[in-house]
Amino acid sequence: MITFPGGYQAKAVIFDFDGVIVDTEPLHYAAFQRILEPEGLHFSWQEYIETYIGFDDRDAFSHAFATRGKALTAHMLHSLIERKADLFGEVINDGVTPYPGVVELIRHLHDQAFPRAICSGALRSDIDPILAMLGISDCFDVIVTADDVAASKPDPECYQLALARLQDRYPGSFSADETIAIEDTPAGISSALGAGLMVCAVTNSYPANRLSQATWVTHTLMSIMPVVPE
To answer: What angle do the packed helices 124-134 and 74-92 form, to 10 degrees?
Structure first.
């Protein structure tokens, strides 16, 4: 058991990825626009923040086509997702910057052998290169991505799966209500709460008033280094 500031206690932590570990949302947005603009389906940054930021690539493309009344076959969708993944891979080659305090927090939990996972709507191929760049590829017991689930956040499926796989790694060690999810979006908060988790929301993508459903809200992960009992 560890205690976070505010007295919240947990036995496991599950991190969202985009908007929590790294600020990749502008990069995802740019990749979407390069694909959708030639189709006349581009959307503004404000639309991305208000609607698309909680979607995985599958649901983002589906929504963009549906809102403009354009047909999208399964084959077309698969092709779009592959093209976007390739573009994103090119963009991140210039490097990415983690949010303040998050790498230190992850390494601290790793050093304490504390159960930890990632639960993300991104593709595994988007996540792995960035973890390697940050030197934290070996710091997670479980990684659940859009490749593993049928529904994106706010559906709780991804957090339910991440929790189940983490519990398999640590049998009998913790329950859902002893697990904290770290999130940055209303959709992510709803997903984690739906799986029975506590939620620490960080204001990297939305102001605190948009994250009020979380168990607690912080402005930076630098402030939540947990206290591990001796």
So the answer is: 10
